[in-house]
Amino acid sequence: MKLINSSLLDQLVIDAECSHRKRKNYNFHQHMEDTMHRMLNAIQPGSYVQPHKHQNPDKREVFLILKGRLLAILFSEDGTISQKIILDPREGNFGIEIPPGRYHTIISLEEGTVAYEIKDGPYTVADDKDFAPWAPDESNKEKSKHYMEWLLAEAL
C-alpha cells in the first residue's frame, strides 16, 4: 500500500520550495520503463513548465489536484490558448485529462500546490516531451518569466 497523507505532502512542498525549479516530484512507479507513471507533483508559484506535448509515442497525462490551486492551459499548434481551467478542490474542479499530442502547461497559483499526476510510460529523455517552438526554454529565466506573466494575464 502506498499512502498519500499530509506528512508526505508537507515534506514535498518543503522540497519544492528549496528546489531551484520550485517543484518536486515524488514517484510511485518503480522504474522509468513502467507503462504507467504515477507521481505527486509539488509546484510553487513562479515555477515555469515550458509548454509541451507528448507525442511519438502518444501519451495521455492526468492531473488531480490534492492541495492548492493549479492553472492548466491547453494550446493550439500555433500557441494560441485554446482551453484553460483552474483546478481547485474548494471550487469543485478536481482534475484534467490531457489527450496525447496537445500542447499544455501548468502554473501554480498558490503556495503549497500539489497534484497527483498520471502519465503513460515508459519515460525516455529523448522522446518524453516535444517542447513548443513558440514558447521560451526553461533555461531562459528572463523570457520564461515574462511569458508566464503573459499566460497568467491572458488565462485569468
In short:
This protein has two helices and ten strands, in the order H-E-E-E-E-E-E-E-E-E-E-H. The protein has 156 residues and is an alpha+beta fold. The termini are far apart.
Question: Mind telling me the CATH class?
Answer: Mainly Beta
CATH topology: Jelly Rolls
Element string (H = helix, E = strand): HEEEEEEEEEEH
Calculate the mean pLDDT score and round it. Answer: 94
Instruction: Domain count, please report it.
Output: 1
CATH architecture: Sandwich
- Any idea what the radius of gyration is? 15 Å
Major sheet: size, sense and barrel closure?
Answer: 5 strands, antiparallel
Q: Tell me which oligomeric state these chains represent.
A: single chain
Helix content: 10-25%
Instruction: State the secondary-structure class.
Output: alpha+beta
Strand order of the largest sheet: 1-2-9-4-7
Give the topology:
Layout: H1 6-18, E1 23-27, E2 36-43, E3 52-53, E4 61-67, E5 70-75, E6 81-87, E7 95-98, E8 103-108, E9 113-120, E10 130-131, H2 141-155
Antiparallel strand pairs: 1-2, 2-9, 3-10, 4-7, 4-9, 5-6, 5-8
